[in-house]
Amino acid sequence: MKEIVLTATILVLCFMTYGQGIITGKVLDEHEESLAGAHIYLKDTSIGAIANSNGQFRLKDIPTGSYILGVSFIGYETLSQSIEVHKKSALSLKLDMIPGDVQLEDLVVSASAQQPLNTLSPIDIRLRPTNTSQDILRMVPGLFIAQHAGGGKAEQIFLRGFDIDHGTDLNLEVDGLPVNMVSHAHGQGYSDLHFVIPEMINYVNFDKGPYYASKGDFATAGFVDFQTKNVLDENFVKLEGAQFGTFRTVAGVNLFSPRTANTQGYLGTEFFRSDGFVESPQNFNRFNITSKISTQLKNEDNLTVGVSFFCSRWDASGQIPTRAVERGLLTRFGSIDDTEGGKTSRANLFLKHKHSFSTGAYFTQQAYAVRYSSDLYSNFTFYLNDPVNGDQINQKESRMIYGYKSNFTTESKFLQKDLTTELGGGFRLDDVNNISLSNTVKRAFLNNVQRGNVKEANINAFISETLKISPKWSVDAALRFDYFNFRYNNQLENTNKSQAKSIVSPKLNINYQLNINTQLYVRSGFGFHSNDARVVTQRNGKEILPRAYGLDFGLNTKVTDRLFLHAALWGLDLDQEFVYVGDEGIVEPIGKTRRAGLDFSLRYEVLPWLFLDGDLNVTNPKSKEKPEGQDYIPLAPTISSIGGLSFKMKNGFNGTLRYRFIGDRAANEDNSVIAKGYFLTDAVVNYTKQKFEVGLSAENIFDADWNEAQFDTESRLVDEPESVSEIHFTPGTPLFLKAKVTFFF
């Protein structure tokens, strides 16, 4: 009897659903590119949807009648279209959006949409002129960077109470390509973004915490995913000149005309050189070339091919001890060993295929190959270990990375509720040759400390199920599986060791739509970061993949059409923080740690041409295994804030006035040594017309003395009988003026 009643109920519900109309379609920009995140809705109803990553949408269960279909997306004119829906009918629409003014009223706060703050990244890119990929990283609320090796080395990153070093706890990707280098010569997760030309970036997707099944290794503090353009708005040539022998030129040209044809693509190049503001010229130069071609094979299939090459070479002044400046041995812009520096290169190739099904499901797959090399010279302790030759070291490697990833997304019904299923998986293989640590003097080889070959493989798979329980509630439950195989051939000891380990990471995220303008959410999940293969094999596989446990309680709300606020209380525990100190070839276990904090962000459209933004991040990072007073995590930020005013006027003038602030923080475990904070102000003004743009920027407009990178390091100068442990630093940029001119054609 129960089975009969259940079957009858299902048939009735199916008949009721079948009696309603359906609208499907795709939202495209002026270049026929998908507008993921666009809001599609029927006016004066509760029926709406958010376009997926392919720009596709589906409106279901629409009663017969006449409607006004609306489409909104930040930076585009709102589209309105009259439609008729009939019983059992199915409409298929192609909706083309026209660029317009940036208006916060177009921002949608929805339990079924991605985080609203993330959809603001296109706004930030448009309103904040950028010059490097690092400038774009700074757009992630609460993320700070520091350069301490002449501009060519990967930046040190700070986020959510982490000194992430060069990428240990932040997953970074560009167009699906991994940026984090596992088992790198300088340190685990080393992430060099200098191969990205900022003018080619379309948008940046980001989020914090280990809550997303598609993100695996290193995604503990969060992830940042760069997506480059498929087609340029227009061809351009840009020239920049600045103080300290700084020059930069960038050019981009579309390869096909018209741009709305089935095949699109461009070629972009960049050259940069600078002597830097330090006393010993950095002789820094960087060259980039990139190309991307996308073609519509047929209505359902799209193929994208991307290729790029990057190389860089530089000298560095290195970190200097505070006492050397206080004793007058050198200025804050001086150097003890100015033969530091290095060179690096990277070549990328990827093929990405997308297939869209008539049901609204879609499948993507991508294969890639990366060739990378790094050759880095550093001297942190001067004459501590070798009083005759000094302590300069060389970290060197070359590697090939091969990978494949796939993703299938479909929509269905579960208990008559909308269910979105996402399945994905892939693999990555790093083949690292001659990874070495050696002692050098003025870049001349002395002896090996470590030398060998690394092979590291990761196979992964995940499933994510998002159930829309009601117009107000949605729940996402996900599970991720990762398998790692580590192999290290120690050429100095003539040994070959391997270890393997797998890990399962569950996630559970809940969204609640309090009202049309307010979303509440809970994020929870397990994550992990892998350890260096040399560490894993030395420790016989113990604690290979230490877990991270995260929990967020958040709020997104539009107080008015012009004011958006975001707030989150969060916590993140790590089972073990292992830091591979590549400079010494040793492992430093920190033990279990706990971080808890508050994130707060606002975006305010003061006037149609004037925007205010601000981010405040407060964190309490502590070790869980050390007594009170000895439980500080060195260099972990506790308070930071960024913000500013941006303007974009119809007469062509646009620009921004911005600040960056990070507070004092402990440089050692007992807080007896302090890394000083700073407050900086930058400004940019541009005049933009149809065929050209001229601009002037000023960094650190008040010419404040500040330290960009700081470490509590034990070192010995050549004339000192004993070593001293104190703050060693690289100076931050003084007042720095730069002019630019861009021609569009």
Beta-strand fraction estimate: over 45%
Shape: globular
Q: Strand tally, please?
A: 43
In CATH terms, the superfamily of the largest domain is TonB-dependent receptor, beta-barrel domain
> What would CATH call the architecture of the largest domain?
Beta Barrel
Largest sheet: 22 strands, antiparallel, barrel
Question: What Rg is obtained from the alpha carbons, in whole angstroms?
Answer: 27 Å
Q: On the 0-100 scale, what is the average pLDDT?
A: 89
Helical percentage: under 10%
The CATH topology of the largest domain is Maltoporin, Chain A
Helical segment tally?
5
**How many domains would you count in the coordinates?**
2
Distance between the termini: 74 Å
Overview of the molecule:
It is built from 5 helices and 43 strands. The chain is mainly beta and 745 residues long. It has 2 domains: 99 residues, Sandwich (Immunoglobulin-like), CATH 2.60.40.1120; 627 residues, TonB-dependent receptor, beta-barrel domain (Maltoporin, Chain A), CATH 2.40.170. It has a 22-stranded antiparallel beta barrel. Strands 3-2-5-6 form a 4-stranded antiparallel β-sheet, with no helix packed on it. Strands 12-11-16-15 form a 4-stranded mixed β-sheet. The longest helix is centred in the first third of the chain and has 17 residues. The protein is globular, with a radius of gyration of 27 Å. The protein starts with a helix and ends with a strand. 40% of the residues are buried. The N terminus is likely disordered.
